[in-house]
Amino acid sequence: MQNTGSIRLFGIGMALLAVTAVFLTEQVIQPSYWLKSAIKVLTFSVPVIGYAFLTGKTIPETVNLRKISRPAPLFLCMVLFFAGAMLLFVIFHEQLNLAGIRQALLQKEHLTRENCLFVFAYIIFCNSFLEEAFFRGFVFQLFRTKGVGALLSAGLFSVYHIGIFITWFSVPLFILCVTGLAGVGLFLQWISEKYRSVAASYVVHASANLAINLIGALLVFGIIGS
Q1: What pLDDT, in 10s, does the model give residues 197-223?
Q2: Which whole-number Å values give the CA distances from 105 to 63, 89, 99, 163, 221, in the listed order?
Q3: What are the φ/ψ torsions at residue 94 (nearest 5 degrees)?
Q4: Cα–Cα distance for residue pair 20/167, rounded to 1 Å
Q5: What is the C-alpha separation between 81 and 77, in angstroms, rounded?
Q6: In this structure, are residues 36 and 111 in contact, taking their beta carbons and an 8 Å threshold?
Q7: Residue closest to 216 by CA, chosen among 104, 131, 128
Q8: What is the end-to-end Cα distance of the chain in Å, rounded?
Q9: What's the mean pLDDT in 77-103?
Q10: At what angle do helices 198-220 and 72-92 cross, to 10 degrees?
Q11: Which of 9, 79, 16 lies closest to 43 in space, CA to CA?
Q12: Res. 167 pLDDT band, cuts 50 70 90
């Protein structure tokens, strides 16, 4: 039992270091998007691989990746998440500094009309899975109590995103966004648990990212925010 507890503490410590490293990469180093993504993949993968090695589990077991059954209800969640993200943009777009966000995408993230569609495709299909495997799969399972695991996983998920949009919003919208992300994290955890697989929360997460990146593409191409 003591050994199991030590391994859990190791996993928790590595998870915290990973989130901190990604945050500092975003805010201090500020590399190109592809280098930043490579760092994120490495930083999120090392704790998972290390924990799997120490516990004798496979990688899919460590991140709770299983084939899902009865996926039909997930399509409704995917549609609702996509529509919800678009609706929130319509409601709050006048409070957003769209020109500033566009400038951040073009200058800080180094997005162009030529590369943005590849970046957004990566975010939708790959980055969504990376985040679900790490937060909803790996981090959640580090805690014996599911409620604690869900809360801390959702909290870290929200903190991790702060580094991306910390300069995008006014203080009230920033607080709303951070709180909303934590709520989304809890909901995605519920979906993951309901279907007993991060594959379920992944497809829902990807649908929300599809909406967000559609807005991002409109910004990069100057259709809005110019």
Answers
A1: 999 999 999 999 999 999 999 999 999
A2: 31, 17, 10, 14, 11
A3: -75, -20
A4: 18
A5: 6
A6: no
A7: 104
A8: 59
A9: 90
A10: 30
A11: 16
A12: low
25's tokens = 């990469």
Cα torsion for 21, 23, 25, 30, to the nearest 10°? 180
Residues 6+ apart with CB under 8 A from 110: 32, 33
Instruction: Tell me the residue length of the chain.
Output: 226
Calculate Rg over the CA atoms of the chain.
18
Q: Which of 211, 199, 220, 166 is closest to 30 using CA atoms?
A: 166
Q: CB atoms < 10 A from the CB of 167, how many?
A: 12
Residue 17 is encoded by which pair of tokens? 């270091």
Residue whose token pair is 């809360």? 151
Give percent above pLDDT 90 in the chain: 68
> Which pTM does this prediction carry?
0.92
CA quadruple 10, 12, 13, 15: dihedral sign: positive
Q: What separation in angstroms does the CA of 144 have from each of 5, 30, 131? A: 10, 36, 21
